[in-house]
Amino acid sequence: MVKAVFAGSFDPPTFGHLNIIRRATSIFREIHVVVAVNSEKKYLFSASERVALMQDLVSGWTNVSVHAWDKLIVEYARRIGASVLIRGVRNLADFSYEFDLAMLNRGLNPEIETVFLSTDPEYFVLRSSAIKELASLGGDVSAMVPESVAQALYGKYRSGGA
């Protein structure tokens, strides 16, 4: 079995992200969930907050670890000896974007394959931006994110941290 990397902003982590991770745990020997850190992006949660949320959420899986990274993901994969990048897709638009990214990554390191996992149907509409907007308006996000994430979201918006 193979070592894989599942990278994303995870701002916030959703049930869709966890669905992909759960399914990947039976396919790959080891999964590194990599929280992207990009100084050009504005995140609701800091890198350390996103890492802590993900660490809590994946703690039940012994073959999953969480890390932050601020460089090319293929460089992270090369450093740890991973040969697969996992990408979750919900629809054709996601696939188109992810396919282009896979081609770019393949050009950077042809030794690393990209594997696309489609989300289960119940997570089809989960989009982090919509979840953040709903939470900012006090809406119920409990069907979209774990309770710890919902509480962190509401806490951010109540404290004016957003």
TrEMBL record:
Keywords: ATP-binding, Coenzyme A biosynthesis, Cytoplasm, Magnesium, Nucleotide-binding, Nucleotidyltransferase, Transferase. It catalyses: (R)-4'-phosphopantetheine + ATP + H(+) = 3'-dephospho-CoA + diphosphate. Its EC number is 2.7.7.3. Pathway: Cofactor biosynthesis; coenzyme A biosynthesis; CoA from (R)-pantothenate: step 4/5. The keyword Hydrolase does not apply. Residues 5-133 form the Cytidyltransferase-like domain. The record marks 17 as: Transition state stabilizer. Gene3D superfamilies: HUPs (3.40.50.620). InterPro entries: Cyt_trans-like (IPR004821), PPAT (IPR001980), Rossmann-like_a/b/a_fold (IPR014729). Substrate binds at residues 9, 41, 73, 87. Pfam families: CTP_transf_like. Its cofactor is Mg(2+). It comes from the Bacteria. Homohexamer. Reversibly transfers an adenylyl group from ATP to 4'-phosphopantetheine, yielding dephospho-CoA (dPCoA) and pyrophosphate. This is Phosphopantetheine adenylyltransferase. The gene is coaD.
